[in-house]
Amino acid sequence: MTFLLANWKFVLIGLLVFTTGFCYKLWREEVRAFAVFKAQVEVLGKSAQVEKERIEREHEKVTKEIKDAIPKKIAIARGAAVANYIASLPANASCSGVSSTSDSAGGVDGSGKERLVTSAGFIQDCAQDAGTIGLWQDWARGMNLPVK
Fold first, then answer.
1. Radius of gyration (Cα) for the chain, nearest Å?
2. pLDDT digits (tens, 9 = 90+) for 23-37
3. Which helix (H) or strand (E) holds 26?
């Protein structure tokens, strides 16, 4: 103990060198750990970028398919709308229970067909709207959105 007290300056210098070396060692370990962390983040960032690009390509593909299908499906829906509507009507056009031989001014003969002709545009518009909604649903499913 007397040796240490007699040479306290050398002991102090030795302790300072030891603590400096220890702190340097801890600092280097942290630098290495940060370099490993940085490399891991870089790898994760690259894989996330690849996944993002894949999803964007898929979304662009689905959007292009739907955009290309819109005019075709709308034309088909509008073209077949009136025929499909007529086919969906019951065989007996007088659903109201009035016989077709009725001589009343508001009889079913002719007036039902006139109403159908005047509403053909409406029927086609409805078919277009239904087709458009179907395409929106197809697009949403292609984007993995929750659509029932």
1. 41
2. 999 999 999 999 999
3. helix 8-88
Kindly state the tokens that stand for 134: 């179907």
Among candidates 84, 107, 85, which has minimal Cα distance to 96?
107
Residue 120 has pLDDT above 90, yes or no: no
pLDDT in tens, 80-103: 888 888 788 777 655 554 444 444
Of 54, 58, 62, 78, nearest to 135 by C-alpha is 62
Q: Indicate the pLDDT class of residue 115, thresholds 50, 70 and 90.
A: low
Distance between CA atoms of residues 91 and 102, nearest Å: 18
Locate 60 and state its tokens: 């662009």
Instruction: Tell me the CA distances in angstroms from 6 to 2, 108, 131, one per residue in order.
Output: 6, 127, 99
Measure the CA–CA gap between 29 and 44, rounded to whole angstroms: 23
Instruction: Please report the pLDDT score of residue 106 as a whole number.
Output: 43
- The closest of 117, 123, 120, 94 to 107, measured between CA atoms, is 94
